[in-house]
Amino acid sequence: MSIPIVRTVAELRKAVAEWRKQDLKVAVVPTMGALHEGHLSLVRAALDRADRVIVTLFVNPKQFNSAADLAAYPRTEHEDAAKLAPLGAHMLYAPFASEMYPEGFATTVSVAGVSEGLCGAYRPGHFDGVATVVAKLFLQTGADLAFFGEKDFQQLHVVRRIARDLDIPIEIVACPTVREEDSLAMSSRNVRLSASERQVAPRLAAILSMRPSASPGARRST
After folding, report:
1. Residue 97 known to bind ligand
2. Among all residues, which ones are annotated catalytic?
3. Which domain of life does this protein belong to (predicted)?
4. How high is the pLDDT of residue 8?
5. Residue 157 marked as a ligand binder
């Protein structure tokens, strides 16, 4: 069993056009590869709600703040395709950078407000890169539904704003964060944590889950 791999917009749109002739509902699950159970949960959710599911795999250079970080990002297309095939996903769209950003490409999608602060404050230009590639993927696939994990919460809000502001007829479906046994949110970047960092990282989830205790001098209401 294998999953068809498509590299060009033309091939992608030809396949989607055939599905449309059959009045099939299409979903897209955008990823940068190095798939883990969190990604696969999105694919399963998409398969529950759509007749055809496209998983995209594109390590988007426009959302990286450093060349070193881009170069170090894990690339595991063969393994990713092997994980997707048993699930029944219908296509892996894995374009080259030259297909997504051909010579002379000069457009950037920028989302104000929700992209500012939080992660956006420490990664200038990151969400512009996310917004640009996601807008392209929505328009290239023409999907009815798009599935994103709540782990990247700020990104989720950016994506929703793109669809709303640009009148892209797609429903954004948010799915719960999938965690490791020690509560660390699953992420493709976890493999880059050192042993000591990997031990510390799960504490973040525990801290965020803590409820603030009442101050020692606080009085109970009666």
Report:
1. no
2. 39
3. Bacteria
4. 98
5. no
pTM: 0.84
Task: Tell me how far apart the alpha carbons of residues 133 and 63 are, in angstroms, rounded to a whole number.
Answer: 9
Could you tell me which of 95, 98, 103 has the C-alpha nearest to residue 11? 95
- How far apart are alpha carbons 74 and 146 in whole angstroms? 23
Which of 30, 2, 9 minimizes the C-alpha distance to 149? 30
Phi-psi category of residue 33: left, alpha or beta, with phi > 0 → left and psi -120 to 50 → alpha: left
Q: Which domains does the chain have, with CATH numbers?
A: 5-178 (3.40.50.620), 183-222 (no CATH)
CB 45 within 8 A of CB 147: yes
Contact 185, 151 (CB under 8 A): yes
Full DSSP string of 134-178: HHHHHHHH--SEEEEETTSHHHHHHHHHHHHHTT---EEEEEPPP
What is the distance between the alpha carbons of residues 93 and 166, in angstroms, rounded to a whole number? 23
- Residue 186, pLDDT score: 66
Rounded Cα distance, 16 and 20, in Å:
6
69 in a labelled binding site: no
**What pLDDT is stored for residue 117 in this prediction?**
63
What residues in the chain have per-residue pLDDT under 70? 117-118, 120-122, 180-181, 183-193, 198, 201, 211-222
Q: Is 199 annotated as a binding residue?
A: no
| Residue 32 in marked binding region | yes
